[in-house]
Specification:
CATH architecture of the largest domain: 3-Layer(aba) Sandwich
CATH superfamily of the largest domain: HUPs
Bound molecules: iron/sulfur cluster
Largest sheet: 5 strands, parallel
Number of helices: 11
CATH topology of the largest domain: Rossmann fold
Structural class: alpha/beta
Shape: elongated
Helix content: 25-40%
Radius of gyration: 23 Å
Distance between the termini: 58 Å
CATH class of the largest domain: Alpha Beta
Strand order of the largest sheet: 3-2-1-4-5
Strand content: 15-25%
């Protein structure tokens, strides 16, 4: 008999790894995983190779959706600009972010004849997105009511269709609740799986980063490169000018596309990424900023332009 396919959203952290293992134990299921490459990081595993390794070890098919590219990136940013539900302590729109990923997971599942989608979510483990009302919102908004299974907390949640029909044996699911991870650690030992130490990893939860992000988020032509560059340097005029803070950052900026202004004496390199009508004015301002952040008097500048 052909096994029923189930798609597990695999972030790489312990909870989603356990979701895979719990479902693999059910004899009649064929477990596949779906991993999202997120523009701002997130999940437990920023190292995607450790996710690849886990999927390989468990002999499961791993599907990847890259949200840092093209239309998907633009859609994600649009969600970030206008989340329907509340944000966390910084700009993190966790409920909307979960809905976004689950909608994409559903699209994939529908195309591939998969009728069960599962996550490693644990009831009350996170304050914003894992309270019961939030879990219900996510289910409803992603049109996965009765389809979305959370094996680690399933016994505390409504039965899914797959449980009702007996495809999934509810007796082998769990009732984990809250932030204490003792039960998960015991399960990891039972299944003999390794896992990374939990660590947010999502830049949208960092207030300092989000202050800079807010400045560029209004930019209609926002590219993933803009997001990456926010991680380095000092940013001025809504990131129209970026100044390196050390040798390494100077080198990175000098390799980027745009106008690079390099002082003849040791000092920060400036990058003007998006050439526009204000070019001359920005170059003048960049030179002033370089001087301000240099220890010595700057005698001149080299200007390089890469398109
Ligand atoms: S922390 Fe929130 S916003 Fe960031 S990736 Fe996770 S769910 Fe998305």
């Amino acid at each position: 008999m052909e096994k029923e396919k189930v798609l597990v959203l695999l972030s790489g952290g312990l909870d989603s790894r356990l979701a895979v293992k719990i479902l693999q134990e059910q004899q009649n299921l064929n477990v596949e995983a779906l991993f999202f490459i997120l523009p701002f990081g997130g999940g437990c595993c920023s190292d995607k190779f450790c996710v690849f390794r886990f999927a390989q070890e468990q002999k499961i098919k791993l599907n990847i959706i890259d949200l840092t590219k093209g239309k998907l990136f633009q859609e994600y940013v649009e969600m970030l600009r206008h989340p329907k539900f509340s944000r966390g302590t910084a700009m993190n729109p966790c409920i909307d972010c979960h809905i976004f990923m689950l909608k994409k997971a559903k699209e994939y599942a529908d195309k591939n004849g998969i009728t069960i989608i599962a996550t490693g979510e644990v009831l009350n483990e996170r304050p914003l997105s894992q309270k019961k009302p939030a879990l219900e919102i996510v289910e409803r908004e992603s049109r996965l009511k009765g389809i979305l299974l959370r094996p680690l907390s399933a016994l505390l949640l409504q039965e899914t269709e797959a449980e009702k029909s007996g495809i999934i044996n509810r007796k082998n699911l769990f009732s984990i609740n809250g932030r204490n991870r003792q039960k998960q650690i015991e399960l990891a030992e039972k299944y003999k799986i390794s896992y990374p130490t939990p660590g947010g990893g999502c830049l949208l939860c960092e207030k300092g980063y989000c202050e800079k992000l807010k400045q560029i988020l209004k930019n209609k032509n926002l590219a993933y490169k803009d997001i990456e560059l926010l991680k380095i340097g000092r940013h001025f005029l809504s990131s129209k000018i970026i100044l390196g803070r050390n040798e390494i950052e100077n080198t990175i900026l000098e390799k980027e596309q745009g106008i690079k202004i390099i002082p003849k004496e040791p000092g920060p390199t400036a990058l003007i990424r998006n050439e526009n009508k204000e070019k001359e004015k920005l170059i003048k301002q960049a030179k002033e900023l370089i001087q301000k952040y240099s220890k010595r008097e700057i005698s001149g500048f080299v200007i390089k332009k890469t398109l």
